Amino acid sequence: MNRFAGFRPRRLGEDVVSDRIAAHQRKLVIGAALGGALLTFLICLVWYLDTDLAHGVKVQALEQDNQRLAEELSVGRLALEMERATRAELERQLAELNEALKKRQAELAFLKSRTASPKPR
Questions:
Q1: pTM for the whole structure
Q2: At residue 5, what are phi and psi to the nearest 5 degrees?
Q3: CA-to-CA dists, residue 97 to 45, 61, 91, 93, 110, angstroms
Q4: CA 119, CA 113: separation in Å to the nearest integer?
Q5: For 68, phi and psi rounded to 5 degrees?
Q6: 51 with 57: CB under 8 angstroms?
């Protein structure tokens, strides 16, 4: 039972075996921790890439929709401009025709007044 600074001759063989078992267990625990960390990293990487790709696909689809809608908008604007120009031209023509009609009505009224009045003899 005499201890010389922690040296126990009776248990020397047992200490070496228990130290080897403890070292082996530490290696297993460290390996398991590293394996778990690596597995967690890989799962997170796959999840990130999956969501990133999904967002990329969504963004690409939205960009295509945006481009299609922009084209439809430009076609609609062109049609609106054409409709406005046509309307303005029709209004101009209508004003010209109304003016010509007023002149013809005035001429007709004049001719009717000339034919309706009795001719003096």
A1: 0.46
A2: 55, 45
A3: 76, 53, 10, 6, 20
A4: 12
A5: -65, -45
A6: no
